[in-house]
Design goal:
Distance between the termini: 26 Å
Strand content: under 5%
Radius of gyration: 14 Å
Number of helices: 6
Order of helices and strands: HHHHHH
Shape: elongated
Length: 112
Amino acid sequence: MEQPPVLDSAVISELREIMGGDFDTLVASYIRDGGQRLQALHDALAAGDAEAVRQQAHSFKGSSGNLGALRVTGICLEIEQYARERDLAAAGTMMEALENQFQKSCDALGAC
């Protein structure tokens, strides 16, 4: 199965048009908050707190979707589903992919 692009260019274009100069502020906020969300996910996994994992993944999924970070959104959806099933081992196996795709999204946003 083919992976979606790192970013949805239509979403990025629309956000740039709507937000103008505030787009860069949005990107900076997403990058800062994303790093905090990754740490919160790690902490929740380490604590064995499936509900906190689900909440963090859900929130990260939403902010990533709003910014068109398609791959991050998809991985967060998987982590959220695993957490709902209380399968934290499976959720934990997704963290490296999430971190990698978040970094790719950040890199791509910097190039926008």
